[in-house]
Write a structure and sequence with these properties.
This protein is α/β, with parallel strands linked by helices. The chain contains eleven helices and nine strands. The protein folds into two domains: 201 residues, Alpha-Beta Complex (2-enoyl-CoA Hydratase, Chain A, domain 1); 51 residues, Lyase 2-enoyl-coa Hydratase, Chain  A, domain 2 (Orthogonal Bundle), CATH 1.10.12.
Amino acid sequence: MTDFPQSDTLALEQHSHVLHVTLSRPEARNAMSLAMVAELSTVFSEIEQDPGIRAVVLRGTGGHFCAGGDIKDMAGARNQPADAGEPDPFYRLNRAFGEMIQQVNQSSKVVIAVLEGAVMGGGFGLACVSDLAFAGPTARFGLPETSLGVIPAQIAPFVVERIGLTQTRRLALLGLRLDGAEACQLGLVHQFCNSDESLTEALQTALDQIRRCAPNATAATKALLHRVGHEPMGGLLDDAAKQFAHAIRSDEGAEGTLAFMQKRPPVWAETDHPEAADPARGH
């Protein structure tokens, strides 16, 4: 089990192969501060080295996921001089978030976002880089940046990848807000849950299914999916065939085949039953 450093903005709890990461700045509706960005980056760096963690559940405390960027950090950056030859403080602030969200996007773990209350700006971006996203009955999404005179600089590319250019134009250029049902229709989230009970059930079902899938094969599949559209298809398929041959000859491939023939669960599915987080936790 990974020994995580003390965190001021996150609550961390591990159950079996699942790490629950709760954004914990309830006084600011879990707005994304520089400290939170750095601590999230540290967590995702640490878990890459931990084969015992196969999934990460992201959620927020106090009834909200994340209300966007932290206003205090913005004010602090405005008061810093833009020294000649040095990056602008606003550039450093914005780019730090982009590096973290890219790290989450490329994580080898299955990332699940449980979305409640405010899912704005940076929170919207985190939702877009999750592998699975479930919206609760209170979830409200938005890209309000243009209405504030700024731009969704680090978020927009991931939103386009998630829901396409046409819908991203509508949301970002008009600064629109939407509920969980519309977010599901757009493909931003995979399931809209109209009660806390159904949200708990959706999360538990997903965690159960992750437990049944081989961890190395899952990580390799996620990496392969990220390459689609970024390199020529012929070369990608050549490399995918090599990976397939390696996978089928690996210990996981042998165990999966044997378990299927013997009509039993494979060894990776026999770990302790992961405990789902209660949607009311931290509210």
